[in-house]
Amino acid sequence: MLKRLIRITNDLKLKHKLLISYVLVVMIPVLIIGLAVTSYFRQQALDNAIGQTIINVDKIKSQTATMLRVPTDISNMLMFNTDLKEIVNRRYKSVVELTSAYLAYKDFQEYRRLYREVAGIRFYSTNSTLINNLEFIPVNERTKESYWYKEALKTTSIGWFYIPGNEENPVHRLSLVRKVPFAEYKTEGVLMIVINQEELNGLLRQEQFETLITDEQGYVVAAKNTELVGKTLDELDFGVDLQSQPKGTIEADFQGEPSNIVIDELGPGSSFNKLKVISVFATKNIVKDANQISQIGMIFITLVLVIALLLVYIISFLTSNRLLRLSKHLNKLALGDLNVTSRIDGNDEIGQLSRQFNYMVKSINELMTQVVETTEQNNRLEIAQKEIKLKMMASQINPHFLFNALESIRMKAHIKGEAEIANIVRLLGKLMRKSLEIGSGKTTFRAELEMVRSYLEIQKFRYGDRLAFEIHLDPMVEKMYIPPLIIQPIVENAIVHGLENKEGQVQVHIHICMKDGMVRVKVKDDGAGITPERLAEVMRFVSGPEEEEKSRIGMRNVHQRLTLTYGDNSGLQINSMYGEGTEVSFTLPAGGNQHV
């Protein structure tokens, strides 16, 4: 899959690659980030609105509880009011007597005058001698069947209900309802304290969102929008049954718009039922500012991206056009037009390629001129070399004549008792014969060391006791093939430079062994050694291409033959300490050296 994608990418034009890269790397990520930021701001606005609404609902609960504490305290006092007990349990014989009693009882009016939270106080009694004066009301069948009256008779605790009201009982407000028992009379009545609707609505008037207070039947007892008071939750288009919803925050469609609804419960002291506080806000109103800012941001981002896309297209067009021009020049050069010249301006990479192209054409022309001149010169040299070779052949000494002459000298020395001279002449002849026989082929470690030993014996004859040598050859190695004349130049270098500037004997150690699948060759002497500066120059020359020092040509030749045959890791390694000696070593792979 990856190879196929790479192949498809390589087949695309540069202009298309730049455009696709811009879209994938810049445009799409920026749009994704923009949408994510927009969503984040929108959610933050919603969370802040929900948090503020919860705080406002808590505040309304606290204020409402404080307000309802007043009618609660009044009901507690009226529970044990003696005058109230007498007036509702007395059997009146005439209207005059009843009217006198009504006029004498001022507590309900006094409480209503003292507390603005109270709109009115009523007492519902089963005393049939009472007349409805909107404060003392005899209970009729309609009242007995009402929900709030039945609930109130179940307990002496306080209940909070919205009283729908009728012609006989025009309340239409949230009211405190409480049973008042009279044990000595074995009677009971229901006390109703009507809450001031203006005061209750005033708690919600300053709220930012639509806020409602409902009773347990779903009646709206107070609202920011006063037109909703008296309606039930079912009549309002919430799209969900809020009456059965627990405390918390829900999402629903209110009047056809997505909204968030915060629901909480208020249970005033000594109450057997609870009120609900509901706050509603439309989602679009909350996120409107965030959406507007996000839209403006997205417009700017889109505009910037489009402008950037246009710039990328222009740049890609200009770049690809210049590359096409350079490609045409290359095609002309490939067809043999060596007079082509690229005229692409600019200091960027394409401009540099254009100039390099011109340099290349110029260099090709110069090289072709040099090749022609070199060919002519080589032809002349070849003719001259043939002439020299003919002259050399005329004066060449026959090698057999040279070996026969050396053998005659050796025999003459042996007859006269010069055994040492005879031996040296024998070694010299052997060394010369081996050198002539080797040619350009291969030899073995054993044959190579025979030449080295002959060379060392001749040098020992020359230097006497000043030279001592030791040769160690691992039997596992001696039949392995190596290029000829690899070790002898190193030994020669050790003797020539080791004996310089040192008095006394110089020892040369030649050690060849097999270790870890590698053949390790080491030539060590305890001669004059090399200074660090001089060692750096030697290593630079040995590894370099130029032949500057005639005395180091053999070492450089050995190094190059080793690296060409076995790789860079098999080159010469030279370690030397000035005044203490020098060690030259190299390592060959055993697998690359076949046995005889």
TrEMBL record:
Membrane-spanning intervals of the chain: 20-41, 296-318
Q: Any idea what this protein is called?
A: HAMP domain-containing protein
- Name its species: Paenibacillus silvae
Q: Which UniProt keywords apply?
A: Cell membrane, Kinase, Membrane, Phosphoprotein, Transferase, Transmembrane, Transmembrane helix
Cross-referenced Gene3D superfamilies, in alphabetical order? 6.10.340.10, Histidine kinase-like ATPase, C-terminal domain
Q: Does the keyword Zinc apply?
A: no
Q: Which InterPro entries match?
A: Bact_2-comp_sensor_kinase, HAMP_dom, HATPase_C_sf, HATPase_dom, Sig_transdc_His_kin_internal
Q: Which Pfam families match?
A: HAMP, HATPase_c, His_kinase
Compartments, as annotated in UniProt: Cell membrane
Q: What is its main location?
A: membrane
Domain HAMP intervals: 317-369
